Amino acid sequence: MNEQQRNEYLEKYNNRTHLFGRIGLLLGIVMLVGSPFLMGLSLDAMPDLSAFGKGFAQIAIIYIPSCIVEFLIYTPMLGAGGSYLGFITGNMINMKIPCALNARDIAGTEAGTTENEIVSTLSIAASSLVTTVVIALGVLLMIPLRPVLEAEVLQPAFDNVVPALFGAMAIKYFRKGKELVAIPLVVMTLLFVFVPSLISNVGFLMILSGAIAIAHAWIRMRKTQKKEAGEA
Amino acid sequence: MEVLDQLNSTPLYLISGGIILFVVAMSLFFLIRAYRAGIAIGMDRTKLKRTVTSSITFSILPSISILLGVIALSGSLGIPLPWLRLSVIGALHYETSVADIAARNTGLDSLNAEQMTPTAFTTIALLMSVGIIWGVVCMALFGKTYTRKLQKKKTGTKKGGGFGDLAMTAMFIGLITAYIGSFIGQLVQFQNGSFVITGQYLQLVTLVFAAGAMAVFIYFTEKKKLAWLENFSIAGSMLVGMAASVFSNMIF
Known about the structure:
heterodimer; A: mainly alpha; 0% strand; globular; B: mainly alpha; two-stranded antiparallel ribbon; 10 helices; 2 strands
C-alpha cells in the first residue's frame, strides 16, 4: 500500500468509524432510555414522571457538567473509535482510560496518531468484552460466588481497587514526567487536607490538577525550545 | 409474588440481556475493524495481539470490582437492572450514589428492598439511565467535529513527539495526583485548628504496595528483558496492592 492508498484507506476508515459509532450510540441511547419503560410494561408499573423530574434536577446539576467535562477530556485520550465504545460501555476512569493508556505504552504509539487510534479501539473493545464476560459469569455463578466475593476479610481488597490501579499507573506515568508531579501533588494534598469536604469532588478537582500539570509541561517545553533556538 | 422476584423475572433479564448483547456486538465489530485496519496499514500483528492480551489481563480485576457493584445493588434492585447499568454507560462510583438519590425521590427512605415497589423501581431505572447518558449524547452529537479538530495529520510510532503526547501524560499525572491527594486527605484532615488522623489508611497502603510492585515489574521487564511480563504488570501490581490492604486490615 503506497502513501496515497494508505491515506485514502484511513480517511474511509475514520469516516466509517464516525458513522458506525454514531449509529451505535444513538441506538444505545434509545434502548437505554426505553428499557425502564419496557420493564414497566412487564411489571405493569410505568416510571413516575413527577418523581423522575425532581430526582433528575438533583442528579443533572452534578452529572451533566461532569459528563461534558469527561467528553472533553477523555475523547483526546481515546481517539474516535475508543471514545464511541468507551462512552457506551462506561467505567471510563476506573478502567477504560488506564487500560487504553497502558495499551498505548505497550504498543509504543503516540497520542493523536492513526496507530494510537487503532490500539486504543482494540484496547477498549477487549476491555469491554472482558467486563461483560466477568459480570455475566458472575451473574450465572452468583450463588456459589457470593460468599467468596462478599467475605468480610476480602472487602478491603475490593474497596481499594482504584488506589491499587492508580498506584500501579502512578509509577509508570510519574517516570515519564517526573518533573510534572510535584506541583499538582502538593496543591491537591493541601487542598484535600485543609478542605476535606472537597474529597467527594475529586472528579472535578482533577481538572484543576490536570490543568496545572499541562501548564507546567507547556512552560517547560517553551523553555527548552527557546534554549534550543538560542543555541542554534 | 415478592417485589424482588418480579425484579429478577425472565422478561427483565431478556431486556437487559438484549441491550448488553447489542453492546457486545458493537465491541466485537469495532475490535475486528480496528484489527483489520491495523494489518492493512502495516502494523505489526504481534503488537496488535499484545494490545488485546494486555487489555484483557488489565481488565479482569477492575471487572470483578464492577461485579461487586452489581451484587451490592442486586439486594434492592434485583440483578437485571444493575447488570445492565454497570455494563452499558454505567460507572461503579456513579450507580450506587444515583440509585440512592433516585430512591429517595421516589418516596423511599433509602435504597432498600423492603420499601421497593415496581413503580419506584422503574422510576429509579429511568433516573439511573438518563442521569449518566450525557457523555454519550455529547459523543454522538459532537464527537466527529471534536475528534477531527484534535486529529493530527502525522502518523507513526516514534516517541517524544509533539505537545499532544506530553499533554496526555500531564493530564494523567494530574488525574493520579488528584486521587493521591484525596487519599492523603482522607487520612489526615485539618479540623477546628488542628490536624486529625482519621485512621483511613488502607487506600494509601494499597497505593504504595501497588506502586512498589509495579517498580519490581518494571525492573524485570526493562533490566532483565522479560518483556512478556509487561502484559501482567498492572494486574499483578493491583493484586499485590489489594492483598496488602487485606493483610493490613487483619493486622492493624
